[in-house]
Amino acid sequence: MYNEQIQNLKPKIQQIIDLIVTKNTINATLLLSEVNDEIEELIDLTAENEGLIELSKYQMLLKHLQNKIKNEQ
Question: Which stretches of the chain drop beneath a pLDDT of 70?
Answer without folding.
Answer: 1-2
